[in-house]
Structure formats: structure tokens, C-alpha cells
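Shipment paperwork, digital attachment
Item: protein structure file
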Amino acid sequence: MENEAYPTLSRINQGLSKVLEWITISLMVLLTVVVTAAVMARLMGQSVSWYDEVAAIMLAWITYYGSALAALHRRHIGFDTVLLKLPPNLRLAAVMLGEAIVLIFFFLMARAGLQVLEVLAGDTLISLTWMPIQVTQSVIPIGAILFIICQLLSLPSYLKLTAAGISLEHAEIEEEVETELEKNKDRV
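Attachment content:
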């Protein structure tokens, strides 16, 4: 989330956004390649034994990294309309309460993820016995910590916009409507 009032934070957000975009897109491309290769192999009468397990893991990784990216840009489901109907002092209190709940949830998720990794020590994937399950499941604590970092990095800008009564959702919708109107202007 960019904001001119926080130039250093904006640069950090942009850098992290690029890294998360690169990871997410790479995983999506890799998943596409894996699925396509498995389909082609099946069409040729060969079956790839590791496909199901690897594809499911990759989908989970895409979800965790994509969620962190969405958190950085404040693109998760929100209640801006309800929030902006509150008086300014209650509005900021509601934002802080919501943020605290989200951060506590992801802290607990990261902690539970680390405990899961301890339990899974020594286990490997069924189809790829050389791959430790700890590696594949490390996305749980990593994703949770990334989500926390992204929420905290985007919080100052979000607080400033919310305090000013500006809705991220409404601004995005208005921008999309204007873009569509501009596209369709030539058709009329």
C-alpha cells in the first residue's frame, strides 16, 4: 500500500510486493507446468505418481503467498462501508480491534505451524520419499509471519485513509467503473 506520507514504508512495501508477486507467479507457472505434464503423460499412457501430492502442496503455497500479497495491498474482504459509518474515534478503535484480532490469529497460526513442523520431523512425502514434509509444510509458519509483516507494513497508510473517511473498496470500485466507462465511450 503506497502513501506519500510514508516514503520509506512505501519503498519497503513495493519491494516486498515485487518479491511476493514473483514468488506467487512463479508458483502458478510451475503448477501449470506440473499439471500439463501430468495430463500429457496420462494421455501417452504413462502415469506420474507424484503429481497429486505436489500439485496440492503447490496450491497451498500459492494460497499462503498470495494471501500475504493481498494483505500488503489490503485486498482481503473488509467492511469499509460499515467502518466508515462509525464516528471517527470509534472507527479507529474498530480498526485497531480488527487488526489485533487478525494479528493474534496469525501469530497463533505461526506458532501452531512451528509445532506441526516439530511433529512432522523425519517424515517424507509418500510419492517423493526424498522430500521432507517439513519443507512442504514450512509454508504455514512462513505464510503466517509474512501475513503479519504485510498487515503491519500496510497499517499506517490504512489508518490514515480510514481516519480521513476514505474507503479502499469504494476507490477501487470507482476506478473500475471509470475504466469501463472510458472503454465503452467509443462504442456509443
